[in-house]
Amino acid sequence: MKDAATPKRLAVALGIAGLLPLGIVGAALATGGTTGTVSVCATARGTTVPAHTINDGTSPLGTIPAVTVPAATNCATTTYTIPTITTTVTRTTTTTPTTTTTTTPTTTPTTTPAPPPPTALNGLKVSGNHFVDNSGNAVHLHGVNRSGTEYACIQGWGVFDGPSDDASIKAMKTWNVNIVRVPINEDCWLNINMGTSTFGGAVYQTAIETYVKLLHANGMYAELSLIWGAPGSARAAYQPNAPDADHSPALWSSLAAAFAGDQNLILAPWGEPTVGWSCFLNGCNDQSTYGSNQDGLGPCSPGSTTCYFVKSAGMQQAVNLMRAAGFHGPIASPCIAYANVCADPSNGGTGWGNGKWLADHPTDPDHQLVAEAHVYGKNTCDTAACFDLTMKPILEAGYPLLFGETGETYDASSCSSTNTQSFLEWADAHNVGYESWTWDTWGNCSALISNYNGTPANAYGTFVQQHDKALP
């Protein structure tokens, strides 16, 4: 198995939102009694995607059979059949009995006390190597990712994958969540290259802004992180190696302007870079690719017409544009190699790709810069010893550190909590915040929940719930 050099997730639900589980993509479902075709995708090549039951939210409609994904790709095509469904309506006639009026003694009803109101937020800013509110009180961030806003819009079936209403946010609150990371799609925000999707521009922006306001109203901070982008006329259908110079700068300016007055927010210009330190800081022409080489493992094949190098934009430009647009809150700049390598652990922590976060982070005139790392089991850096060597120096130098994504394994291969327990214990001991991946009902080991009422989906979800609920 490959480590941090392999994307930990490549497939998400397509088709009819809410009916198909993670890994099933394709056209809308066929009508009853007919056969349809879907493309089944896995998070690791050469593996088998188990059979899935299609349902309408109440009753099973049919089954998509198990299929083995070839080693050379992430997807294979299979078929499914939805049987004809017959609905029988039975009418029952009832006779109303004669009613005798009686006198009932007066009673005092029992009143259920209302839940306490959420704690009002009072700003979030950097002070040394930790977060504080506007009164100087320390803030320890512990929350979740809410995936869906990066893919549903570009695929044309919504903005969120699942509910985004107040009730769904209150379910998060029962886990003692105090921050939610919301991934952003570049094309959807800017309303470019949307194809037939109607979920870009004002529709998408309003949905994100409304969701952030609901989070704040429930006492939760938010992090908005650009993770899906694409150059030129290509569609932002996955996360490439780095932000593109064509559109990412416009996204940074627009997003920062929209949230310039929000003091309870972190902005993250990119999610998981797979270019070198210098390129990620300043941009370059020869490291970020787009097309068939989606995992970024090596250069495009000579003469390829489906994979090509693109000019990338850097983190220094992102910070400059966000500040110029009026946003003065924390900005999270990630480490490289899927945000997991903050310095090379095999070289005494002194550099991966001739650099490290401490030497190659952007300069922020507002001094509100945050280092972001993504930590999963089976990553290059997934032990306390590695954290001490490569991440602890960031704290010692006076910068906050945030685990913007963390989970049991990057490839959803384990639903246990052994790694997660180690990660969160280290983070708590070093005042490092974290956002667990992910508050979605995908049905695999990346999913924290089995429904949007907040029921844990597995041992991993149960541990995160119990751990976070025990925090002050």
Summarize this, please?
It is built from twelve helices and 20 strands. The protein has 472 residues and is an alpha/beta fold.
Question: SSE layout and pairings?
Answer:
Layout: E1 24-26, E2 34-41, E3 48-49, E4 52-55, E5 60-64, E6 67-68, E7 75-82, E8 125-127, E9 130-132, E10 138-139, E11 142-145, H1 152-155, H2 166-173, E12 179-185, H3 186-190, H4 202-217, E13 221-228, H5 248-258, E14 265-268, H6 277-282, E15 288-291, E16 307-310, H7 315-324, E17 331-334, H8 357-360, E18 369-376, H9 384-390, H10 392-396, E19 401-407, H11 418-429, E20 433-436, H12 459-469
Parallel strand pairs: 11-12, 11-20, 12-13, 13-14, 17-18, 18-19, 19-20
Antiparallel strand pairs: 1-2, 2-7, 3-6, 4-5, 8-9, 9-10, 15-16
Helix pairs in contact: 5-7
How would you characterize this protein structure?
The protein has about 475 residues and is an alpha/beta fold. The chain folds into two domains: about 1-85, no CATH class; about 125-470, Alpha-Beta Barrel (TIM Barrel), CATH 3.20.20.80. About 20% of the residues lie in helices and about 20% in strands. The protein contains twelve helices and 20 strands. The strands form six sheets. An eight-stranded parallel sheet has the order 14-13-12-11-20-19-18-17. Strand 1 and strand 2 form a beta hairpin. It is globular. It starts with about 25 loop residues before the first strand and ends with a helix. Residues about 1-45, about 55-60 and about 80-115 have low confidence and may be disordered.
